[in-house]
Amino acid sequence: MADPNLSALVRVGCEDSGKSRRAYCKGNWTLHETVVLISAKKLDGERRLKAGDKEKNKISEFRWKWIENYCWKNGCLRSQNQCNDKWDNLLRDYKKVRDNELKLIPGQPSYWQLEKHERKKKGLPSNLTFQVYEALQEVVDK
Predict the structure, then answer these.
(1) CA angle (58 as vertex; 56, 59 as ends), nearest 5
(2) Which of 18, 20, 68, 115 is the most exposed place for a label (fewest CB within 10 A)?
(3) Any bridge partners for residue 23, and if so which?
(4) Which of 41, 134, 123 is nearest to 86 (CA)?
């Protein structure tokens, strides 16, 4: 009889990495996964500030492993490399939208008023949600 947990993982696009006991998801990130990642980065930053120099000097790989573990416990079944890559992409998109909003001339439409094709035409990310933008703003611009 097949393991019901494994079949559930396969249904949502998760695969056994072969290197560990975790079955990591592949493909597009859900909104839930993205919000969990942003929360993990926020908590990691706070955790590292409280710990002082000892924690600040840890190599990046250990920090991302902590983030992976946090994400895993909160239903985001992604590897530390996937989390790191997604974070880099989120930051890039956030900065493009933030810079666009800061440079708006009165009368110009906000990023949030543009259609997907208009965003692409301006070189802006086409699918950044306001919820994700606000969550990133709390982490990046605090």
Answers:
(1) 125
(2) 18
(3) 16
(4) 41
Q: Compute how many other C-beta atoms are within 10 angstroms of the C-beta atom of residue 93.
A: 18
In which residue are the tokens 């839930």 written? Answer: 32
Element (H, E) at 24: strand 23-25
Measured in residues, the chain has a length of 142
Q: Where are the alpha helices (DSSP H) in 12-110?
A: 31-51, 53-56, 60-73, 80-102
Query: Dihedrals φ, ψ of 23, to 5°?
Result: -110, 105
| Both structure tokens of 41 | 């980065």
Q: pLDDT (tens digit, 0 to 9) for every residue of the chain, 142 residues total?
A: 333 343 334 334 565 444 557 889 999 999 999 999 999 999 998 988 887 766 666 677 789 999 999 999 999 999 999 999 999 999 999 999 999 999 999 999 999 999 999 999 999 999 999 999 999 999 998 7
Do 38 and 128 contact (CB within 8 A), yes or no?
no
